[in-house]
């Protein structure tokens, strides 16, 4: 399969989700930034999973499409768990979904006949440029939504004369 807009946006969304996942898992929970990063991550995952059903080789689905269907279910369960305040269920579903994304990425990046290795072999400059742009976008999102640290209030003391 040659590169086309669907495949390109699929890869971009997957790379965004790969970068946002650990940022959100390793930081403090239950704040505004966690929710915004989580919504962005979930939207990226849903796009990756749904778009995968239009990316087929020789008209056949693979085990990756089964993983996509399973991931749609687990991300939905993770969101439902968060709404119900079941933090453990939320964390387990989201971490499991992220690990599935990681497995799919490793498969897509390691199998020589897949699009990513072919792009790296044929046009490494474009691949590196795209990866840097995606990383910069995720970094900008994180800097934008992270909580600001409050400075301690300046205390004025009276000096005796």
Characterize this entry briefly.
By secondary structure, the protein is mainly alpha-helical.
How many beta strands in the DSSP annotation? 0
Specify the biggest β-sheet: none
Structural class, by secondary structure, is mainly alpha
Q: Please tell me the total number of domains.
A: 1
Q: What percent of residues adopt helix (DSSP H or I)? A: over 70%
The radius of gyration over CA amounts to 20 Å
Query: What percentage of amino acids are in beta strands?
Result: under 5%
Distance between the termini: 83 Å
Count, helices = 6
Global shape: flat
Report mean pLDDT, rounded to a whole number.
86
Uncertain runs: none
Element-by-element helix/strand order: HHHHHH
Describe this structure in words.
The structure is a single chain. With 161 residues, the chain is mostly helical. The protein has one domain (5-145). Helices cover 73% and strands 0% of the residues. Helix 1 runs antiparallel to helix 2, helix 2 runs antiparallel to helix 3 and helix 3 (63-83) packs antiparallel against helix 4 (87-110).
How would you describe this structure in keywords?
6 helices; 161 residues; mainly alpha
Write the layout of secondary structure elements.
Layout lengths: L4 H22 L5 H21 L10 H21 L3 H24 L4 H8 L1 H22 L16
């Amino acid at each position: 399969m040659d590169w086309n807009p669907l495949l390109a946006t699929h890869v971009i969304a997957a790379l965004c989700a790969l970068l946002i996942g650990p940022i959100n898992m390793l930081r403090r929970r239950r704040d505004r930034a966690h929710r915004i990063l989580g919504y962005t991550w979930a939207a990226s995952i849903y796009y990756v999973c749904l778009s995968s059903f239009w990316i087929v080789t020789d008209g056949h689905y693979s085990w990756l499409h089964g993983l996509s269907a399973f991931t749609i279910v687990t991300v939905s369960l993770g969101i439902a768990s968060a709404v119900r305040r079941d933090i453990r269920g939320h964390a387990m579903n989201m971490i499991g979904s992220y690990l599935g994304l990681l497995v799919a990425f490793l498969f897509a990046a390691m199998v020589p006949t897949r699009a990513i290795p072919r792009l790296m072999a044929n046009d490494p400059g474009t691949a590196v440029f795209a990866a840097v742009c995606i990383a910069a976008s995720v970094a900008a999102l994180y800097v934008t939504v992270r909580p600001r640290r409050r400075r301690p209030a300046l205390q004025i003391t009276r000096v005796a004369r």
